[in-house]
Design goal:
The protein has about 250 residues and is mostly helical. It has one domain (about 1-240): Up-down Bundle (Rhopdopsin 7-helix transmembrane proteins), CATH 1.20.1070. It is about 85% helix and about 0% strand. It has eight helices and no strands. The protein has helices at about 1-30, 35-60, 65-90, 95-120, 130-165, 170-200, 205-230, 230-250. Helix 1 packs parallel to helix 7. The longest helix is centred in the middle third of the chain and has 33 residues, at about 130-165. It starts with a helix and ends with a helix.
Length: about 250
Amino acid sequence: MEYALALGFGSFLLASLAVGVRLLLLARRTGQIPELLIGVGVLGIGPLGFGLSTIAALSGRSTILGATLIGCSFLALFIGAASQYLFAWYVFRIRDAWARHLCFAAVLLLAASYAGDILENGLINRNRGGVWFWLGMALRVGVLGWNAGESFAYWARMRRRLRIGLADPVVTDRFLLWGMGSGAAFLGSLIGAVVIALTDFSTSRSPVMGLVLSAHGAVAAVAMWLAFLPPARYRHWIEERSRERDVAVSSDSP
């Protein structure tokens, strides 16, 4: 049981670290905003936000070290989630006024939720719960769902273009993978939030709950890895599959 938990959470953290660093290096080289936003988002939510909060829990929440780690994890989670909102708006909905308003309102509410959570629950011997805590949780879960929905919708459009030779198969597959990774993270986070709310945190350390979250984390890790760090063999397989479909379509045409 413990090995399965470590495998799921560990793979998610390692994949997030590798993907985030690679994207930041790519953004530095190309100057592209999407790579920068998603790199910061992945690093902030994954190895920095979640990783620091895990270390804080292990170090003891009553210590100054634990409080410092929790404060740093709050900052990382805020920056990561804000970057994810900006990414969803900038990449998928930059021309839509409603998406711009939603994005910036969410970022402001995120900042308010963390400030309110610290004032309400503190950093040393902190309690969990209250309006600000759950507002921050809802906003972090929501941005994962937004990214997943937009990615799947864009993948569907790219598939139609791919059939007539107007899209690249590897890029098309990347939107599918990003949707799967964001979707797995969304479902895992949503399940965790609902169970915690219904049980008043009494099952937050349950082995079964840990396995469920670990499984979603592992799926998200694999999807992120294949989307942004695809092995040459995987890229070749995607391209070959696309060519085979093109041949099949051509042979069926009158």
